[in-house]
């Protein structure tokens, strides 16, 4: 035990040897002599406890709390950490106590990167020509400013396909946070926009000037100006000298700009402590780069690296699987999780015939665990993409199992799904002018003014859609108008009375497919959502019941979808969450949906080794949320609606992250009956064709 351990024995109570080493690192040294510290905190290893005890130990050793900077990624995390620092210091009594320990949370400079940036810019902004009275605008406001500037420059007139405000803001944000040149970023991520390079440059310049003129800053500006503040010789040293120690939580989630800020705050790394886990770096889509933590020991000389490997959350068989999965990464920091709680069952690999059988199995198993004493609130279903849970949501709703869903918009609340449903609502009830206007304004060349005129014509014609056949469309609308009126005639004529709701959804989807790239970003992902909607619609008996269930009164939360009116926040409920939103959480039982190639890893993330490694880390995060029970779900058939194929389903192999050599780490189980008489009524033996095919596919895809 280090020499300082006896002095801080009360702060070290309950810590393991690795945690103690991290807490005591450099204590008693002058800040300039405290070497950089990288704490590699594996899942469930007591990261927050270690970090807060280190802050408390620094204060107890005599460091002025006002000279400590604690950076987190959420305001809630910062408040919790500062509260725990105070609680830890409260343990020091008698001679070890000091007045500085009182209300230490008010003295330590703690908060998110953006909150701390705003605080410092108000104090020092004048030095770089920034008004201290600036207003911070959120994402929605920033989009509106971008839209206004875009309209003033008439960029859409110069190019009708010029990107919408959301895409423009995404590109602007990526340039700021990654430090990439606009031309390089477009070439890499948006090659279709290279012809708009000069227009985007003009837009972003005007956007910046508008914000300066109006004294407003968006989130990216806060970091950009903080970085610039530190770089200015006239003021940078004063800001830098305010802090002796800088501690950063979730370092694996930092971006290039945030790393630059930290490098300027601690030019030689002295006094810098970063805590993170490269195996849980899953936010590249937000601009984070795993390179920051992977390269930290090389970019900061004399770094002390302390891995936290003792896991207080999961049973050892769960960790064995997680360790094996992450070992397949092309590059990682070395650590192996070991369990404080050794005993426990192996995780389950559950083979299901399709997504419906997967949903049925999970609902059954959830209720079975409830019977055994595991409350709903201690169970969670995790998935790669929000639409993966749709079949399960409907099954839970059917059974009256209450649930909350987290991560992304709920499926039926997304813009593209609402777009498609608007066609059906318009056909079902022509008096629904909200849907009429929504549909009309999807068509190129039809704005609010034209939509108002066409809606008035429909009303004057007693809601007879035939009135639009005589309309002379604008040039931009012409190529769509004839097909559009034919579609409306089909949906309101004899064909709709014969056609199933699935056929109607498919017909609208095929027409809408021509518009989706004009209306929204990430068109391919949205197309898959709409294919899922087509799959779900097959269960409805008619259009009226389908619209009533799905869209007549769209729920504002999944609690409403689960059919629990009047329920409160304290009710026992199941958690449904994207893996991204579940990071940092833990449950007794975890079910991971659709662990198949194409889902985990996503078929959209197979382009580079970096993307594939991030998908592997995503599975690792999902697995390490489980305390006692872990279910890895493998539906053998998934709804794909592949072009050129008659069968709407496709066979899906088990994720490449679970190769054959890892299968002994799981117990295998079949969801549903062992005899599939529906598919093969002439087979009377015990062989299960679907399970056999699944294993055969696994071997083929090794």
Automatic annotation (TrEMBL):
Record keywords: ATP-binding, Helicase, Hydrolase, Isomerase, Nucleotide-binding
Membrane-spanning ranges: none
Record EC number: 5.6.2.4
Binding sites annotated in the UniProt record for ATP: 41-48
CDD domains in the cross-refs: DEXQc_UvrD, SF1_C_UvrD
Molecular function per GO: 3'-5' DNA helicase activity; ATP binding; ATP hydrolysis activity; DNA binding
Ranges of compositional bias, category Polar residues: 550-567
EC top class named in words: isomerase
One of the record's GO cellular component terms: cytosol
Secretion signal, residue range per the UniProt entry: none
Domain UvrD-like helicase ATP-binding residues, every copy: 20-315
Name used for this protein in its record: DNA 3'-5' helicase
Organism of provenance: Calycomorphotria hydatis
Gene responsible for this protein: uvrD1
